[in-house]
Fold this protein.
Amino acid sequence: MAPERGPVRCRGMHLQTRRLQLRPIEMTDIDEVAALLGNPEVSRYLGDGQPRPRERVELGLRNGRRMWNERGFGPFYAAGDSCFIGIGLLMPIAHTGIDATDLDARGPEIEIGYWIARSAWGQGFATEIGNAVLDWAMGPDGPGLDRLIAVTHPDNAASQRVLEKIGMARVGETDAYYGSTTVLYEYGPA
């Protein structure tokens, strides 16, 4: 069964869903993104499970801006009713054994993901962001990617449900990414 999709309007690099506006991330978003990724509940299933220090968040934002400038896609800042909701991710994935902060060492697979503010959990925002980013990434208004992957911590059942809702197929567990065991999902031809 195909996932239920809501309308996504694209204006340049800005996406709008029923409840959210998504735009390319900017360096001026540092305070909100640092608070998001510094929250232990949000970072629990990310990488080593530790909150991200501000310096690492700043490097991530620089890498995100570089992706937008060089490849025409990257992380999205998502807001609803003028309130920061989270991040929609579209980046080359970090393989095990490389420095995840080294953008040139990542990929070639492109990862889709989402990081949602704790105050917005349980309201369907991850699914809404995931659908919008996936549709844009693979559609005629976006970069026209033909395959996306996603990984999640094996214990993160909520994220796995979201990936399945947006139409991604579970491949199985792997140690290929981020130096840990993850559950791999894919969308598009294998």
The beta strands are 9-11, 14-16, 21-24, 76-80, 83-92, 110-116, 148-152, 169-174, 182-187. The chain has five helices and nine strands. Helices lie at 30-37, 40-43, 54-71, 125-138, 157-165.
